[in-house]
Amino acid sequence: MMEMGGFGAIILKEDNLPKGIITDRDFAIKIAVNKYPLDTPVHKVASYPLQTINPNQSILVAADLMSAKKIRKLVVVDEGKVVGIITTTDIVNQLAKMRKD
Fold first, then answer.
1. What residues contact residue 62 under an 8 Å CB cut-off, 6+ apart?
2. Which of 30, 36, 50, 70 is the least crowded, having the fewest Cβ atoms under 10 Å away?
């Protein structure tokens, strides 16, 4: 599903609320290294709890949270609804753009 859609991560929901995330890195590390079969349930390799940020918070807050939690993807949630994902690449690109301006 991730490969077909070109996604680097998929959000896992429980009771229609975002609870966890499975990333391309989860596949590389948790599945490949541990030699889990490909029919392993997603919830066994996903990362919990889901780390989120409000869309009104700054890029600096996002960067600080990502650094503190040692994560590369941060889910943006507005009133309980996932509205996006900010990645370390997004932050680096924004910093590069700010330097040019």
1. 53, 74, 86, 91
2. 70
Same domain, 6 and 29: yes
**Residues of the domain holding 94:** 51-101
CATH code of the domain containing 6: 3.10.580.10
**Model pLDDT for residues 25-83, shown as the tens digit of each residue:** 887 888 888 888 888 888 888 999 999 999 999 999 999 999 999 999 999 999 989 99
CATH of the domain at 55: 3.90.1280.20
